[in-house]
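User: Here's a structure from my thesis project, written as structure tokens. My advisor, Dr. K., wants to see whether a designed sequence matches the one we expressed. Can you design one independently, without my sequence as a hint?
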């Protein structure tokens, strides 16, 4: 009997990411709500798994939810100003208690487990300490913030040394001043400073929201910086707005990628890091998905993309040798290292025309505007070369071309060199398009 396990397929497909993440530095911020006793176990187990897989981890944790509850139980109502508590001695005593309690709980969860627990036999050195230097917020608009502070700097050299020793670094939301005082800090700000100072490959923010959504409620998987900031301003969720601001600032200052996921989904951290599309929002300075010229190392991806279409007769088969010879004619859409779309521009200098060929999009990524993006990229290349006409041959996608400004024609309209290779048995439809000076395609309007 053939027994199939979905986990096995997922694990096979995750191998690329396991290899890509090994040796990388991730700063992970988990807000306090995600670390309550009933929620913390799976998150900390997932962090332990990342550590075992070779990720260099810095964990920053918040205590906002824990402190709020402690203040209510103590019947204390600290003054708020400019979005921060004025932290007097009584309030600071509660904050230090909640930070210490949660830090100890995290360290306990990261300790070697019993034989029937996920962390059985795994030894992880979870190291905390005076790794964040702080300064007081001081007096603002006449209000003295007392023990509330802000990050002065993160001791990045000390953290790197600990990471080199295979330690998992834990940063609580406290900072230490040059005068020997302890200050209450914003955990998200610590995470931002740490990610920037370390040049982290990823900043992962685990908050209440499961990513950034547009006005229609659709998850924005990869907004650019401008889109992310505009959407955040429209949300009433103050925590999400802060997280998006931090993500955008980190991206501008060199952090590779910032991921926004929710602690409400117990699988979110692993699903975001070990699947191609993830489950949350990723913000990068550069596009996660980009159109670019093809390179020789794209040949394998092109062959894999084109083979199913060639087998169905939708495209003429192209050998590896042919692709290598014509690689400069191709543009590709790359998504996280995978070629998910391509198109080729083959010029015919004798009459100023060029063939638009081999337009293909991976089945899992159809339905968007990737075909239009490919067409726009090819048309731009054609104009840069001084070409005035595009032609295409198709057996299956006539209407797609007609909707984008092509008109039907006859094989006699093809350049002589291309006409000699026209295959009457395929009976491909011939389409032409005149390129205007600005020539915006549908995707560019």
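Assistant: Designed independently from the structure alone:
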């Amino acid at each position: 009997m053939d027994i199939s396990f979905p986990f096995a397929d997922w694990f096979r497909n995750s191998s690329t990411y396991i290899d890509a993440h090994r040796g990388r530095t991730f700063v992970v911020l988990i807000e306090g709500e995600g670390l309550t006793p009933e929620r913390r176990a799976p998150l900390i187990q997932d962090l332990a798994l990342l550590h075992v897989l070779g990720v260099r981890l810095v964990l920053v944790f918040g205590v906002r939810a824990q402190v709020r509850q402690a203040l209510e139980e103590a019947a204390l109502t600290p003054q708020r100003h400019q979005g921060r508590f004025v932290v007097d001695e009584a309030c600071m005593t509660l904050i230090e208690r909640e930070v210490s309690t949660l830090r100890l709980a995290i360290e306990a969860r990261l300790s070697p487990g019993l034989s029937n627990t996920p962390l059985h036999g795994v030894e992880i050195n979870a190291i905390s300490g005076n790794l964040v230097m702080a300064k007081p917020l001081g007096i603002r608009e006449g209000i003295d913030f007392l023990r509330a502070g802000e990050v002065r700097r993160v001791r990045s050299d000390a953290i790197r040394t600990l990471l080199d020793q295979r330690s998992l670094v834990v940063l609580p939301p406290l900072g230490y001043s040059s005068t020997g005082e302890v200050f209450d800090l914003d955990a998200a700000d610590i995470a931002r400073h740490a990610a920037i100072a370390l040049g982290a490959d990823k900043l992962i923010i685990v908050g209440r929201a499961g990513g950034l959504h547009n006005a229609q409620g659709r998850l924005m998987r990869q907004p650019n910086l401008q889109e992310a900031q505009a959407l955040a301003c429209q949300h009433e969720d103050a925590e999400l707005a802060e997280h998006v601001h931090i993500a955008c600032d980190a991206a501008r200052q060199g952090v590779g990628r910032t991921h926004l996921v929710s602690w409400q989904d117990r699988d979110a951290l692993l699903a975001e890091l070990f699947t191609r599309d993830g489950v949350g929002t990723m913000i990068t300075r550069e596009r996660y998905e980009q159109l670019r010229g093809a390179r020789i190392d794209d040949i394998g991806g092109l062959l894999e993309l084109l083979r199913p279409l060639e087998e169905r007769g939708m495209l003429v088969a192209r050998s590896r040798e042919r692709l290598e010879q014509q690689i400069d004619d191709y543009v590709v859409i790359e998504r996280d290292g995978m070629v998910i779309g391509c198109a080729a521009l083959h010029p015919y200098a004798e009459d100023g025309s060029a063939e638009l060929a081999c337009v293909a999009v991976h089945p899992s990524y159809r339905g968007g505007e990737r075909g239009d993006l490919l067409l726009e990229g090819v048309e731009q290349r054609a104009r840069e070369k001084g070409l005035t006409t595009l032609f295409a041959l198709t057996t299956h996608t006539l209407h797609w071309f007609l909707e984008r400004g092509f008109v039907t024609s006859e094989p006699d309209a093809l350049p002589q060199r291309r006409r000699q290779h026209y295959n009457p048995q395929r009976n491909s439809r011939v389409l032409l398009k005149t390129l205007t000076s600005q020539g915006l395609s549908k995707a560019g309007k």
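When you compare it with your expressed construct, this may help: The CA atoms of residues 134 and 177 lie 5 Å apart.
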